[in-house]
Design brief:
By secondary structure, this protein is mainly beta. The chain is 0% helix and 55% strand. The strands form 2 sheets. Strands 1, 2, 5, 6, 7, 8, 9, 10 and 11 form a 9-stranded antiparallel beta sheet that branches. Strands 3-4 form a two-stranded antiparallel ribbon. A hairpin with a 7-residue loop joins strand 9 and strand 10. The radius of gyration is 15 Å and the shape is globular.
Length: 124
């Protein structure tokens, strides 16, 4: 069970694991966004935070205030003959209406969940 946390300027925080057995080290409890519990194995786009639905896996033990929530993105290929690993997004859950990511070391971008006049939600 090998994994590496990474960061880049486009995807932000993410993780690459050698296999899905990595998921066993995560805390398997729900996260609460806007009063709705999202349980491990549930599919969500987190109110359009993601461009497609992802599977919520669990979170790393962090602090009581902040959780490093982990979402499965899929597997990658290095070439036609070898597998590149399993890819996961890491999103920080600060409050039920506030989440964030880092896009480079020493920076952090947080967003608040807002509601439009038509009733739809967005992050700002």
């Amino acid at each position: 069970m090998q994994y590496e946390k990474r960061i880049d300027t486009q995807q932000g925080n993410y993780l690459v694991a050698s296999g899905i057995d990595f998921e066993n080290i995560l805390i398997k409890e729900p996260i609460i966004i806007n009063g709705i519990s999202i349980f491990p194995v549930e599919m969500t786009d987190l109110y359009s935070w993601f461009s497609k639905v992802c599977r919520y896996v669990g979170y790393f033990e962090t602090t009581e205030i902040t959780k490093e929530a982990v979402f499965y993105l899929g597997s990658g290929d290095v070439d036609l003959f070898s597998n590149g690993g399993q890819y996961y997004d890491i999103t920080y859950i600060l409050k039920s209406d506030r989440i964030g990511k880092s896009y480079k070391a020493g920076s952090f971008r947080d967003c608040f969940l807002r509601i439009k006049k038509n009733g739809s939600f967005f992050w700002k």
